[in-house]
Amino acid sequence: MAVDRRIAALTRDSLDELALPCRSCVRWELDAVARSRAEAEGSTAQAKQDWLSRTLLDWGSCGQVVRAEGAVVGYALYAPPAYLPGLAAYATAPVSPDAVALAALHIDDAARGHGLARLLVQAMTADLARRGVRAVEAVASQSGDDPCLVPAGLLLALGFTTVRPHPRHPRLRLDLRATAAWREDVVEAALERLLGRPLGALHRDTPQ
């Protein structure tokens, strides 16, 4: 039986539906000092909410969630590097001046193996391409053993290429001009069915 799958922009409400520890993780959203303070105060969940509110207001849509049978089972989080100070801790940062940073791409264990990561990346690239963004880059995990970093192998399978090698944390890039085939009519129609609205509404429906 087919599973009902839908993609939508990340909002403050859907943030609360993310699995732990993702909904309270501020690995990327805060610098090391602010993150340590929030962890000591037990305020990381509130800090994540505050970050999302500011980013939505200042920059616009910065994430996508995928639902299966109504429940959020995965998400992608992305923003310009200025909004993600935690990336500075890695040797292969910063991302290129023309790129937005993909900070997180997560699918719950029980929902893996059904192409949901590709759907999230397709929705992200459709959103960003319409906003004039040229590329997406990510600091990845070469070994795949860091839950806060996207595995390099997954990104390579999704069309990213390595732009700065590193034995542990390579930086990978997806040129949005190279994803034009994803935005052909057939693919757009499939995404529109998942989203429940025209793709052109992605950047107009930015949550406030």
Short description:
This protein has helices spanning 12-15, 32-41, 44-58, 116-129, 152-157, 185-195; strands at residues 5-9, 63-68, 71-79, 99-107, 135-141, 150-151, 161-164, 171-175. With 208 residues, it is an alpha+beta fold.
Plain-language structure description:
This protein has 208 residues and is α+β, with helices and mostly antiparallel strands. The protein has helices at residues 12-15, 32-41, 44-58, 116-129, 152-157, 185-195; strands spanning 5-9, 63-68, 71-79, 99-107, 135-141, 150-151, 161-164, 171-175. Strands 1, 2, 3, 4, 5, 6, 7 and 8 form an 8-stranded mixed beta sheet that branches. It has a single domain (5-195), classed as Gcn5-related N-acetyltransferase (GNAT) (Aminopeptidase). A hairpin with a 2-residue loop joins β2 (63-68) and β3 (71-79). The chain contains 6 helices and 8 strands.
**Total count of strands:** 8
State the shape: globular
Compute the average pLDDT. Answer: 87
Text of the CATH class = Alpha Beta
Order of helices and strands: EHHHEEEHEEHEEH
CATH topology: Aminopeptidase
Tally of alpha and pi helices? 6
Query: Into which percent range does the helicity of residues fall?
Result: 25-40%
Largest sheet: 8 strands, mixed
